[in-house]
Amino acid sequence: MKIKKIFMSCLLLAGVLSASAQEQYPKTVYDHNPYWYIQLQGGAQYTLGEIDFKDLISPNVQVAIGRQFSPVFGIRLQANAWQSKAGWNGYTFVTKNADGSITEGSRVDTKWKWNYVAPGLDLTFNLSNLFCGFNPNRIFNFSVFAGGGVNIGWKNDDAVAAANNAQANASKIGMQYENMEYVWSGTKVRGFGRAGIAADFKVSDAVSLGLEVNANTLSDHYNSKKAGNWDWYFNALAGVKINLGKTYSTRTIEAPKVPEKVVEKVIERVVEKPCPQPTVAPTRAVAQKKEDKFRRDVFFMINGTQISKKEQEKVKEVADYMKANPNSTVEVTGYADRGTGNPKINSSLSQRRAQAVSNMLQRNYGIKKDRIKVDFKGDTIQPFAKDVENRVAICIAE
């Protein structure tokens, strides 16, 4: 009894899945349009260092202009800027007394900050569209990006002062001097690499709100301290993205029409003829045979224009018919299915399919070009009920 219940449940589930798999018509299809956008963001930066976390937080802003080429791939030019911080923990100030003794002062944290701007180029990848399909009505989109650029730093006066102060005290007995061999002044330009993640929340077709976290790495010279490894800073940003222009277009696919079956009624008429006289030689009746139209349907793979070996046999049959009937001509008409691509792409695709058949007739079988008429319908006409059968070039010879 238990096995019977399980079996019936499986049958019910299979029925539900089968019903849900049926496409609903008419249906709306969304086609992605390439578009530009601008992005304004603000937040905070954490520069990796040895002092307390809160002492290494600084303000941060970012502006960007980007181009979304496809549902998945895009590129953006961004400029990240404002401030970075660094320092060391527990620097001890000492004083040398007149008698030569040393008096240690209190241990204090030494901190410094500097300004920078970092223009760069990022490659962006929309993972929501990649794994879930393009849907312009989706509220949440998750993306990743990676890129690089140059970091231009200036106003590092605090670090220079800290280095000079440390150097002045380093000669005193008992002083432990923090190594600031890479301290810099003026303006410095260094390359950087970056990667990050982003989440966008749609407000309208033109506006979305976003969150972004990115990690940036550059040479050990960035924070003035010699550490023997790469320096890092991390940005957490929130902002708005404004799309420029129409980001998608829609088209409606109607339910495919079932081709009407045309039944030709054949009427046979019996004509009685008198029996010929024995003295009269029988006449040979010459029956004029009306040749029927010769048709072959050459099918293609999705988005394909190459003729497979199986379908090449059909092209050969058309050529054999035309060789057997020297006065015959053939009309080759290409089609594409509405369920794939868009009208512009499908028009070109159907033309190339028809031309592929024409080229094979001429090149492989010597059929003259003036005996071949090439036409194409794109997806404006669907000769068959199933999409897979509408990826076809229909050849009609007579």
List keywords for this structure.
398 residues; alpha+beta; 8-stranded antiparallel barrel; 20% helix
Describe what this molecule looks like in 3D.
This protein is α+β, with helices and mostly antiparallel strands. Helices cover 20% and strands 41% of the residues. The protein contains 5 helices and 14 strands. The strands form 3 sheets. It has an 8-stranded antiparallel β-barrel. The chain has a 4-stranded mixed beta sheet with strand order 11-14-12-13. Helix 4 crosses helix 5. It is elongated. The model is unreliable at 280-290 (pLDDT under 50).
What is the element layout, followed by pairings?
Elements: H1 2-21, E1 27-32, E2 35-47, E3 57-68, E4 73-96, E5 102-126, H2 127-132, E6 140-154, H3 157-170, E7 188-202, E8 207-218, E9 231-244, E10 248-253, E11 294-299, H4 309-324, E12 330-334, H5 343-365, E13 372-376, E14 392-397
Parallel strand pairs: 12-13
Antiparallel strand pairs: 1-10, 2-3, 2-9, 3-4, 4-5, 5-6, 6-7, 7-8, 8-9, 11-14, 12-14
Helix pairs in contact: 4-5
Give the strand content: 35-45%
Number of strands: 14
Rg from Cα: 39 Å
Q: What is the molecular shape?
A: elongated
Low-confidence stretches: 280-290
Briefly note the structural class of the backbone: alpha+beta
Largest sheet: 8 strands, antiparallel, barrel
Number of helices: 5
**Would you list the SSEs in sequence order as H and E?**
HEEEEEHEHEEEEEHEHEE
Mean pLDDT: 84
Major sheet strand order = 2-3-4-5-6-7-8-9
What fraction, in percent, of the residue positions are helical? 10-25%
Distance between the termini: 65 Å
